[in-house]
Design brief:
Length: about 800
């Protein structure tokens, strides 16, 4: 009996030791391995796909320990995307880890290496080669450098937008030069510069006009911009160094290298896949506890022609794809990786996701957005999908919050360096959030962006924490936006201001049905030289904004409710309230401002606009004349180190203001801090003499009109440019008022002639003085329309 007991004890002990020995398993892959190998460190596999297969076999055995797939140094060309479903899930303490070998550079390429090319010299420095007949080339790289599709005008790194544009890019005269432009593309900005449009050329019609398909990339459609446009992938435009053109019908690739370079000595790659790794489970069985670490993601295919899904009533459309995609995932992450040379989005977190983390990554040189969190529109109650759309009051679902849980929640994007994105698409962001809840955006450095650095597309469902980010050099190729931008065209919001006023006055409970959690914007450093540092646009509600250093554009609040803004510093700028509601409950207090409040169409001033700190007495007087700032103060601030961006107050710290951290904006990891730039710190200008900028005002037919003179006025009216004249006042017997004009209408054309300012209108009125009627083009409630004035 004793012997039997001893044997059982020994067997149990050895079983315990064996289980401990097998608490983790690692499969190794190397470019020097072989897929028939065992897959350990000494005899690695050669392909990642075979490594994935081996991991799957381990998971089938119900192995409960940690599993790693370790990739050795080198470039791995994938012939299909890596799909990780719920069968790869780990446990919280024993996750599945897909990572680079320690200290090694591992590149996962969605492209394909073009081998055995035989280049021959053509004319004018152009070379050609035949490629395999099944090859499709949408992007081309030479020795890792992205080359330029043959385009007009030619690429110029110093010109924005589009690195070159021309009004005659699709003129009839230029199109006549192209024998067969089919397969080319037209890229253009929105008429209001609110993002961009992209069209594929399908050919020419019998009159020689281009036949175009596309243009669905912006959710506020307009004609394309008359100047900011270019064409690419046109053979006749192949005339500049590093341009290329692919004749898909003949499978011939043309390339113009730098003078003296023989392309036969270069390595060429082309994009093939849209996605490299997808972590996609089901709602019933999400992917859990998978970590991706230390990899380089490159060479995904461009996706701009697929960007078409509208995001509620924001200005966006999106395409749910990225180099890494998460859907139905929990406690998964991608970290310490590099994303570059991508045709579309870098990371897309789609629909149901919880505690997904994107951290410690470098994201640069990509075609679209860096990190996007986007939920399912069907999770939204009473959704509308265009600016001008709305659900009638009688049909509104009045239940608070989401309809389902099919959206990202409690996710994080932190310590990422994001720069030089939106190379193709212009309605992009460093971090995009829509139909999501409680997203943490922490310690990211974001710059060199065509539009917003951080964008929140709607109020569903708030709860975000946006903190310690460093965002600058934004809105470089578009207009009417901010380093941080948001919209809030939620259930309560109506495109007709009078109807919206009536609705929220009668039913204020509707306001926070979607934005039912407070979003915090705190401890960030923002600089936008082409808009606002913080831009809360149409309807954005339920925000608390504090401890932000705003270096140039100030803070704008438009058309929302329940915004509290305090303890911010607005360098060389101030507060921009636009089009406020009665009983908005907005609060703007205890902020350092360096200009008087730049209000536009504000008749009601919320709960508190007071207790702010001015650097010039005349600015405070201007605001007190508006019956504001009864308790405002003038201070003479002494900042610690303006030259190096430290605006800590050393003396005369006024009651109610608290100094905040000036040292911890942006990325925190050592490798990214070494790479990251910082914003230019402006020289303080409030003590400099100011030139006289009195507005030009005229009266006409019983109306007072003034020129559009500021970005704020342009934005409030929804104008594409800072041009036009606004009606600011009517006499009691105004003939313009009698003929249907309204206060805040902006006249932009008269009889088809552009109206730039009051001087221009006065000149046109004299020119057309004998007309029986005048046709005016105006903007009303941000909508362009025609009005006839009968004389």
């Amino acid at each position: 009996m004793k012997v039997l007991f001893l044997n059982i004890l020994i067997i149990t002990l050895f079983g315990f030791l064996d289980a401990n020995a097998q608490s983790s398993r690692a499969i190794y892959v190397s470019v020097h391995g072989h897929d028939k190998n065992i897959g350990d460190e000494k005899k690695p596999l050669s392909t990642i796909q075979e490594g994935i297969n081996r991991v799957k076999e381990i998971k089938k055995t119900k192995f409960k320990g940690k599993v790693e797939l370790v990739i050795g140094v080198g470039t791995y060309y994938l012939d299909k995307s890596i799909k990780l479903d719920q069968s790869f899930s780990g446990k919280q303490n024993t996750p599945f880890v897909l990572r680079a070998e320690d200290g090694e550079k591992v590149i996962l390429s969605a492209g394909i290496l073009l081998q055995n090319l035989k280049w021959k010299s053509e004319t004018n420095g152009v070379w050609s080669t035949v490629v395999p007949s099944a090859t499709v080339i949408e992007d081309l790289y030479s020795n890792g450098k992205r080359l330029i599709k043959a385009r007009y005008p030619n690429y110029n790194a110093n010109i924005l937008p589009f690195n070159g544009y021309a009004a005659d890019a699709i003129s009839k005269e230029r199109v006549a030069r192209w024998k067969n432009p089919k397969g080319g593309y037209v890229h253009a900005l929105h008429e209001g510069k609110w993002g961009g449009f992209h069209f594929e050329i399908k050919g020419k019609d019998s009159q020689g006009n281009l036949m175009l398909e596309g243009g669905q990339q912006n959710n506020r459609p307009s004609p394309i911009h008359e100047t900011f446009r270019f064409v690419e992938n046109i053979f006749e435009e192949l005339d500049d160094t590093n341009e290329w053109y692919f004749d898909i019908n003949k499978s011939i690739l043309y390339y113009k290298p730098e003078q003296g370079t023989n392309p036969n000595v270069l390595k060429f790659e082309t994009a093939r896949l849209e996605n490299i790794i997808s972590l996609v489970g089901t709602k019933q069985q999400p992917v859990r506890n998978i970590k991706i670490k230390g990899l380089d993601f490159v060479c995904t295919a461009p996706t701009f022609m697929k960007t078409s899904e509208p995001l509620l009533r924001s200005d966006w459309t999106i395409y749910r794809q990225g180099a890494v995609k998460f859907e139905n995932a929990e406690n998964c992450e991608v970290s310490q990786s590099n994303f570059y040379n991508l045709g579309g989005n870098a990371v897309f977190v789609s629909n149901y996701n919880r505690e997904v983390k994107i951290s410690g990554n470098l994201i640069e040189q990509i075609g679209a957005s860096a990190v996007s969190f986007v939920g399912d529109p069907s999770a939204v109650r009473s959704p509308s999908f265009r600016y001008e759309n709305f659900v009638p009051e009688a049909d509104l679902d009045t239940v608070r919050g989401p309809k389902s849980d099919n959206y990202p929640k409690d996710c994080e994007v932190s310590d990422n360096l994001i720069r030089n994105i939106g190379l193709v698409e212009k309605q992009v962001a460093g971090v995009q959030i829509s139909i999501a809840e409680s997203i943490r955006v922490l310690h990211n450095t974001i710059y060199d962006i065509p539009r917003a650095g951080i964008n929140v597309g709607d109020g569903t469902w708030g709860g975000h924490d946006i903190a310690y980010n460093d965002v600058f050099n934004t809105v470089l190729e578009t207009s009417d936006h901010g380093a941080f931008n948001s919209w809030g065209r939620d259930r309560f919001w109506h495109p007709d201001r009078e109807k919206m006023d009536d609705l929220v006055a009668r039913r204020p409970e509707l306001i926070l049905l979607d934005a039912y959690k407070t979003t915090y914007i705190r401890n960030n450093r923002f600089r936008c030289d082409h808009g606002w540092d913080i831009d809360l646009d149409d309807g954005s509600s339920n925000y608390v904004i504090f401890n932000n250093l705003c270096l140039n554009g100030g803070i704008k609040l438009r058309e929302g409710f329940h915004r509290t803004v305090y303890n911010n510093i607005t360098v060389n700028n101030g507060f921009h309230p636009h089009v406020w509601f009665k009983n908005s409950h907005d609060v703007f207090r205890n902020n350092i401002v360096m200009l008087p409040h730049q209000d536009i169409r504000v008749d009601f001033w919320g709960d508190t606009v007071d207790y702010n700190y001015y650097v010039k007495a005349e600015d405070l007087v201007k605001d007190q004349e508006k019956r504001l700032e009864r308790n405002g103060k003038v201070i003479t601030p002494k900042f610690k180190d303006v030259k190096n961006g430290d605006f800590t107050l050393l003396a005369e710290v006024p009651d109610g203001f608290v100094n905040f951290d000036m040292q911890n904006f942006g990325v925190t990891s050592g490798r990214l801090k070494k790479l990251a730039d910082s914003p230019i710190i402006p020289e303080l200008n409030y003590n400099k003499p100011k030139t006289n900028t009195a507005s030009s005002v005229i009266t006409y037919k019983g109306a007072t009109l003034k020129s559009i003179e500021s970005l704020g006025e342009q934005s409030a009216a929804g104008l594409p440019t800072m041009e036009g004249i606004m009606i600011v006042k009517f006499a009691d017997d105004s003939y313009l008022k009698y003929n249907g004009f309204l206060i805040n209408d902006v006249i932009v054309a008269c009889e088809g002639e552009k109206v730039i300012n009051t001087t221009g209108l006065d000149s046109l009125l004299k020119q057309f003085h004998y007309y029986h009627k005048l046709n005016f083009t105006i903007y009303r409630n941000q909508v362009k329309q025609e009005v006839v004035l009968n004389l």
